[in-house]
Structure formats: structure tokens, C-alpha cells
Amino acid sequence: MLNLVLFGPPGAGKGTQSEKLIDKYQLVHVSTGDIFRSHIKNQTSLGQQVSQIIAEGNLVPDSITIAMLEEEVKKNPDAKGFIFDGFPRTVAQAEALDKFLVDNNTAISGVIALDVTEEELTQRIAKRQEISGRADDAADKLKKRIEEYFSKTIHVLPYYEEQGKLSKVNGIGDIETIFAELSAVIDIYSA
Fold this sequence. Notes:
The protein has helices spanning 14-25, 32-41, 45-55, 62-74, 91-103, 118-132, 139-151, 156-162, 175-190; strands spanning 2-7, 28-31, 81-85, 110-115, 166-170. By secondary structure, the chain is of the alpha/beta class.
């Protein structure tokens, strides 16, 4: 089973690249952002909690995120693998994900970090906000999300680096070029 974590700050291109990788490798996309938005849209009790937390620009607590993620993985018992997008965001989440996967006789195959400068992120998200109007892309909340990434989430990378599972790809440039670089890395994991 090919299980990947696509890593990067808000606006790094994780969603764009995930779509292309899913098609190529027939993976199931598990995006915490998509899961949260689905719960919010369907106004589940969890969605109402998550809505409040996200609206304030905060990260959803590990217990809620992990439970939702496990539920999503269990919905796809015949999957060839998963691509985790937006998760894990903390070392505690990475440890919980590892434990969950081991308990299900699989593991993370590799972690790919999309390297993008803060200046590039700000420009991309400003464009995305104009198009989508996503509440979490508003300037004040975006600043908080980017700060959260660089102060907390970035610390997950050494966790995977110690396991020999971390690769970095330049996330600035042509979408197809970035995709080709990601594919080259994934082909090594799946060999």
C-alpha cells in the first residue's frame, strides 16, 4: 500500500498536486480541510464545533481531527493507498497516524514537503481568496495559519526525517514541472 503525506504551508499547492497524484497512482485523497468543510456544510455537530474553531483561525484539536481521519480511512478498505493532505500538523498527530496505520497493517511510505516562500504563499492565497472566497483565506486568518505552520507544523518534518521518509520538492514553478518532480520521488517510494 502506498501511503503519502503531502506537506506544505497554506497555498503551497497541496490540493492542486494531490488531484494529479490521485489520478496517476489511484490513491484515496484524505484532506482534513475537505473533511472539515464537508462536516461544516452538512452542519453536523462536529461541523459546528470545527466551524467555530476555523473561523477563529485556530487548528482543530488532535482528538477531533484524528477521529475524523480514521473514519475516512475506514470508509475505503480496498484502497491502493492514501494521500494525506493537511495532516499530520503536529508530532502528536504524526505519532497517532503511525499507530493507526500500523494497527491496520500498513505505514507511511513517504512524506513530501513542498517548499514555497512566504511571499509566494501570500500572493497565491490572495488570488485564491478572490476566486473562492474561502473564509480561512481572509488576510488576518491567513496570516495566523501561515504563522501556525512555521511555528508548529514545520516541526513534524524532523519526525519523518529521522525515519528516512522525508523528501523535499520545490513548490514554486510550473504545475507540471512540480508534478513531474513529485512523481519521480513517489516512484522511488513505490518501487
